[in-house]
Structure to design on (666 residues):
């Protein structure tokens, strides 16, 4: 009270914030294990009436430590806090001002750095209940950057190696902080399943908000190991309700990644073990599938000037590469790696494989459904980097097998560290699991390639054949019916001149075709330099060869590398498509590629006609800021005086640099 008086006497607007409880039950309970800290709301506001003092801030603060487990206690403490605030000091805001994982319980423990989804979901669940039950108006994490081996940071630094690592927890917090800026308001929510908060805590939790700019926002936390359906409806705002919802997803393979918009009233899928923020899109004439908005500061994000016109590339929301194609139950699937390098990184950064599908082969991105990352490096305990080229095929047993290139963690340091692994699933969309528990092909095998990558597999009536390789060394081997073991020795195929990497094997009308990337000219104009690749092809009467080179199936593309896939779709139609990658997406490059698809046709003699590459119309270039205004000067005749003419205006010399001082013009 003395401090309040002195602040007022000095004419200062400073506010005193009291209390900040070390544990939230200290605010309302009179029966904790620290009696001298109990009942802070009652003592300070009911008995002392501090909220009546002008220089006492109308808020209380507490920490969420040690009240998060068991789940029933987490729910009960937050309900009790809200009830006490409403009864004792209903005009006070509650701020949660400090938390990191200090607990050591059945579900989580503080020691041990973990960059993955588990601490992210544990914390996201806590944020949900702190906001939805306790009514917190602010939520704050303990440390931004940590060098320790503890679950206390959002970004981690390794001092000795000078490396910096982001955590999934950082991205999970972004589902609130990115979209709910000061001025946002929490909205009440109702559920059709009537699940209790305790039941929600191990499944799907949803909270609603109105953002500071007036848009409806929903944040969903799926703690479950399976996807959960969610249909969002907004009551009480009539015709001004959203026409669609734009999801932003964080899960094992995505960081606040924008996904295709979901029409209002339709059912969306919240991926397993994920946090998803849904942003209401305003009603208006624009189509629902406009280009997604990347998250500012995300080095993996596609630039914001994405055009929505149909045309290649078919995936706009992330960079994709090394496509493979499969047809199943009348639907075309494309599987690809994801390029995650930042614009300044000069290396392939790939940690996961994604899937896309459509019922109409087209270059229109709106027709392709993104199924998210279905397979990642973490699914292979023996792998430690490089989610490179792959192929999915259906095995003799009816199951699906995903052959992948990845790096073998225990490979000898003096040889090729890349290897080929296999995952298995009952459906193209999984769930997928490692089929072997180790690599299928490594450099330790006799006659292995110099670089064991890029597997392609064909299940034929005479057996299963696999090709792979790079550094000019293609290899072939038979697999047994299990799809997980070699059935013979490794051989070097004949008749693939100029082979560099990326083979793709398929059959049409009894003829076997081999597509492959080549960085050499063979009395033709395959490439402009050895740093680029075209796609050559060869044919054979048997999947094991010998092969006869036939020509170029696809010319050089805008990316230095290329990886083809060929597929007939619909099945039995003899309509063929080539899937490949380029650097055509704005912001793309050697390490930021994009999947494309175009028609592949055949001449009457079975030769492949060179595929014509197509692209979406490029967006209008943005002006480049410059102090030289003359670069943007142009003569126009929208108005001339009676004694002027357009010819006179246009007849002068080229303008020199204006050398204008001051800020950039553009």
């Amino acid at each position: 009270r003395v401090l309040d008086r002195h602040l007022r006497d000095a004419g200062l607007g400073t506010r005193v914030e009291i209390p900040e409880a070390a544990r939230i039950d200290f605010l309302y309970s009179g029966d904790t294990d620290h009696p001298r800290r109990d009942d802070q709301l009652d003592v300070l506001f009911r008995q002392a009436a501090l909220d009546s003092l002008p220089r006492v801030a109308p808020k209380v603060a507490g920490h969420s430590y040690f009240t998060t487990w068991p789940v029933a206690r987490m729910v009960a403490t937050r309900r009790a806090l809200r009830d006490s605030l409403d009864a004792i000091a209903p005009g006070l805001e509650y701020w949660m001002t400090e938390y990191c994982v200090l607990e050591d319980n059945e579900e989580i423990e503080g020691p041990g750095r973990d960059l993955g989804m588990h601490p992210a979901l544990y914390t996201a669940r806590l944020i949900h209940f702190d906001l939805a039950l306790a009514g917190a108006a602010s939520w704050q994490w303990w440390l931004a950057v940590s060098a320790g081996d503890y679950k206390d940071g959002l970004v981690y630094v390794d001092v000795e190696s000078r490396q910096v690592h982001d955590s999934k927890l950082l991205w999970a917090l972004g589902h609130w902080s990115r979209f709910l800026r000061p001025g946002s308001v929490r909205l009440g929510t109702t559920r059709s399943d009537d699940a209790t908060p305790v039941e929600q805590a191990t499944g799907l939790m949803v909270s609603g908000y109105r953002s500071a700019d007036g848009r409806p926002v929903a944040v969903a936390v799926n703690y479950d190991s399976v996807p959960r359906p969610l249909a969002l409806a907004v009551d009480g705002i009539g015709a001004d309700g959203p026409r669609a919802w734009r999801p932003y997803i964080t899960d094992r393979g995505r960081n606040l990644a924008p996904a295709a918009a979901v029409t209002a009233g339709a059912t969306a899928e919240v991926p397993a073990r994920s946090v998803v923020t849904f942003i209401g899109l305003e009603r208006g004439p624009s189509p629902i599938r406009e280009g997604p908005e990347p998250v500012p500061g995300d080095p993996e994000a596609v630039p914001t000037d994405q055009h929505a016109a149909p045309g290649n590339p078919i995936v706009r929301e992330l960079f994709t590469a090394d496509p493979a194609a499969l047809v199943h139950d009348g639907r075309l699937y494309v599987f690809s790696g994801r390029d995650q390098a930042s614009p300044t990184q000069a290396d392939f950064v790939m940690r996961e494989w994604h899937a896309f599908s459509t019922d109409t082969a087209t270059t229109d991105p709106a027709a392709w459904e993104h199924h998210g990352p279905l397979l990642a490096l973490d699914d292979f305990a023996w792998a430690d980097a490089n989610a490179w080229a792959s192929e999915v095929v259906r095995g003799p047993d009816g199951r699906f097998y995903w052959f992948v290139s990845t790096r073998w963690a225990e490979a000898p340091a003096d040889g090729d560290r890349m290897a080929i692994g296999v995952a298995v699933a009952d459906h193209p969309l999984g769930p997928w699991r490692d089929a072997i528990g180790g690599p299928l092909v490594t450099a330790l095998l006799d006659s292995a390639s110099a670089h064991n990558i890029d597997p392609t597999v064909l299940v034929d009536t005479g057996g299963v054949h696999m090709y792979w390789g790079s550094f000019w060394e293609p290899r072939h081997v038979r697999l047994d019916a299990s799809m997980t073991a070699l059935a013979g020795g490794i051989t070097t195929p004949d008749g693939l001149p100029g082979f560099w990497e990326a083979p793709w094997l398929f059959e049409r009308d009894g003829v076997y075709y081999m597509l492959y990337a080549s960085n050499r000219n063979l009395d033709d104009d395959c490439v402009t330099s050895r740093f680029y690749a075209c796609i050559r092809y060869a044919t054979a009467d048997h999947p094991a060869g010998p092969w006869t080179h036939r020509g170029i199936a696809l010319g050089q593309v805008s990316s230095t590398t290329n990886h083809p896939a060929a597929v007939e779709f619909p099945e039995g139609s003899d309509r063929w498509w080539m899937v490949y990658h380029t650097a055509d997406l704005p912001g793309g490059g050697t390490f930021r590629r994009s999947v494309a698809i175009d028609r592949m046709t055949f001449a009457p003699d079975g030769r492949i006609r060179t595929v014509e590459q197509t692209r979406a119309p490029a967006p209008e270039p943005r002006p480049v800021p410059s102090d030289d205004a003359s670069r943007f000067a142009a003569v126009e005749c929208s108005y001339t005086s009676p004694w002027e003419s357009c010819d006179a205006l246009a007849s002068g010399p080229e303008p020199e640099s204006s050398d204008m001082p001051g800020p950039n013009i553009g």
